[in-house]
Structures are given as structure tokens and as C-alpha cells.
Design a protein that fits this description.
heterodimer; A: about 110 residues; mainly beta; 6-stranded mixed sheet; 5-stranded antiparallel sheet; about 55% strand; globular; B: about 110 residues; 4-stranded antiparallel sheet; 11 strands
Chain lengths: ~110, ~110
């Protein structure tokens, strides 16, 4: 079957670093995405990994290990505006098209 | 370039009614996917359209249907509404099919009473 797990909630303080983990089980694998979703808003694209390793984009980095079915999103120099839900999503190679399988999201609360 | 647009943004219906939601993708994007988001289940894939053809379908009952027009705009329809259909319905577009990133619209929030 298909399953994506990520922690439900995390808290951190401004200026800190936080790592949000995601583990997945799919029948095939064709890429992993991270999205950010503020309350009441649409998800916005953060990062995409299809090969093993680290992808860095400003304060955000995403890591993938396909053999372990594991990814993490690293947020550095946290700001209050980073308080949001972070969604891990996998594209299943077994499915045609661009359908994504989403985890239930990790709600990150950043305090001062 | 304008983003993905969805109409209406908010909708209130009663059980048994039907509803049609609309999505206009980013210009040049030919793939449109629909998702349902609820607090309990998170984001769940409904279906995907590419070049007016349904290419993929999630695990939802036949009351949920959709279509895509020649200009890539898409509509989804839910018939015989149930209370459990109350959700945020998100549309996402991408350039093509396989590896392209999906960009989401603001969603239509449907409340079924």
C-alpha cells in the first residue's frame, strides 16, 4: 500500500533550526515534494527531490534517501512567518500522471 | 503570469444537492489535478486531467466527477451531496504529466448542511 508519515505538530523558537521528517512507503517512487500551507491558504511549493541527497534553497533544505524511504525538510533561522503546515508528498511511479500522495502535514509553531 | 484560479471560493449547499466547481490553470499548463482537503484525512487525490482526458483517479465514489475543456480549464462535480463532502477542494496545475511540479489554486471551501 501507500503510506506517508510525518509528525503532527512541532514547536520551535525564532532563529532556531527545525527538521521535519517524512517516511514513505509506495509501490513505486517518482519524486518527493514539500509544500508549505498557511492557515486558510493554498499549499505553495517548497522543494522537489528525486535523487538521493540534499537540495538547498535559501533557508530551506530538503534531503532524500530512497533506500530508506525517508526525507526531511530543514528550516534554518526560523521566522514567525514560518508558522504553517508542512506537507510531504510522493509521486508514485506506479500511477500515470502527476498525482501526489500527501502526508497529513506537520503543523509548525514558531514562537518568539 | 497569473496563478491558478478557482471559483467560487466559498459555497454552502444542503444534503442531496449537487455542486460544480471550476478551475483555470496557469497559462500554458495542460495538466489539472483535483484534491480534497479535510482536517481528518489531509489532502487526498481526486482525479487528474490532461488534454481533456482523465488520466488518473483517486479512491472516491462515482458521485465525484470532472472534466477538462480544450482550453485546459477544468470543472469538478459532486452529486447527491453528503455532510462528509464538506471540505476544501483544491485544484493544481502543471505543465505536463510526469515530473512537473504542481501549483495549487486558493481552493473552494464547500460546506454541506
Amino acid at each position: 500500500g501507500q503510506n506517508i508519515d510525518q509528525p503532527t505538530e512541532m514547536t520551535a523558537t525564532e532563529g532556531a533550526i527545525v527538521q521535519i521528517n517524512c517516511t514513505y512507503q509506495t509501490s513505486g517512487f517518482n519524486g518527493l515534494f514539500w509544500y508549505q500551507q498557511h492557515a486558510g491558504e493554498a499549499p505553495t511549493f517548497l522543494s522537489y527531490n528525486v535523487l538521493d541527497g540534499l537540495e538547498e534553497k535559501g533557508r530551506f533544505s530538503s534531503f532524500l534517501s530512497r533506500s530508506k524511504g525517508y526525507s526531511y525538510l530543514l528550516l534554518k533561522e526560523l521566522q514567525m512567518k514560518d508558522s504553517a503546515s508542512y506537507l510531504c508528498a510522493v509521486r508514485d511511479q506506479g500511477q500515470a500522471g502527476t498525482a501526489l500522495i500527501f502526508g497529513k502535514g506537520t503543523t509548525l509553531s514558531v514562537s518568539s | 503570469k497569473a496563478g491558478v484560479t478557482q471559483t467560487p471560493r466559498y459555497l454552502i449547499k444542503t444534503r442531496g444537492q449537487q455542486v460544480t466547481l471550476s478551475c483555470s490553470p496557469i497559462s500554458g499548463h495542460r495538466s489539472v489535478s483535483w484534491y480534497q482537503q479535510t482536517p481528518g484525512q489531509g489532502l487526498q487525490f481526486l482525479f487528474e486531467y490532461f488534454s481533456e482526458t482523465q488520466r488518473n483517479k483517486g479512491n472516491f465514489p462515482g458521485r465525484f466527477s470532472g472534466r477538462q475543456f480544450s482550453n485546459s480549464r477544468s470543472e469538478m462535480n459532486v452529486s447527491t451531496l453528503e455532510l462528509g463532502d464538506s471540505a476544501l477542494y483544491l485544484c493544481a496545475s502543471s505543465l505536463a504529466q510526469t515530473t512537473e511540479t504542481q501549483y495549487f489554486g486558493p481552493g473552494t471551501r464547500l460546506l454541506v448542511l
